[in-house]
Amino acid sequence: VQLQASGGGLVQAGGSLRLSCAASTRTFTNYVMGWFRQAPGERREFVAAITGSGDSTIYTDSVQGRFTISRDSARNTVFLQMNNLKPEDTAVYYCAARAGPGLARSRAIYDYWGQGTQVTVSS
Questions:
Q1: What's the half-sphere exposure (Cβ side, CA atoms, 13 Å) at 81?
Q2: Residues 5-49: pLDDT tens digits?
Q3: pLDDT single digits (tens) 69-119
Q4: Are strands 77-82 and 112-113 parallel, antiparallel or unpaired?
Q5: How do beta strands 67-72 and 91-98 pair?
Q6: Which of 49, 81, 105, 123 could form a disulfide linkage to 68, CB 3.0–4.6 angstroms apart?
């Protein structure tokens, strides 16, 4: 499975961005999809995940209520809508796919990774 992330950019604090991640697979609904991020000098951390059917999601506490993960199975694409962005959200954002059931926060469980897209939030 190849993942292609896009949609990053430079935005002022309080602004919004929508990230997209296109997956090259015919069995997109078989994969749990996740978003992670990595700031300079920091470990890659979990942001959000969504089940293959799209009926369940989880978020890290710091983005709860501001970010929304969703997926479009017809387009084999997962999205991350990011609202009310803060400077601490600045990072490279990665999408990932897990070939198995159940939502997961651990990056070790994900099987495939995209190349990352830079999000920079200015104060």
A1: 7
A2: 999 999 999 999 999 999 999 999 999 999 999 999 999 999 999
A3: 999 999 999 999 999 999 999 999 999 999 988 899 999 999 999 999 999
A4: unpaired
A5: unpaired
A6: 81
Q: How far is CA 43 from the centre of its chain?
A: 16
Q: Strand 9-12 vs strand 117-122: parallel, antiparallel, or unpaired?
A: parallel
Report the alpha-carbon distance of residue 37 to residue 120 in Å, rounded: 12
Q: Which residues of 40-71 are buried (b: 16+ CB within 10 A; e: fewer)?
A: eeeebebbbbbbbeeeebbbbeebeeebbbeb
Residue type, 77: T
Question: Tokens 């009310």, residue?
Answer: 84
**Tokens at 14, concatenated:** 């309080």
pLDDT, tens only, 56-82 = 999 999 999 999 999 999 999 999 999
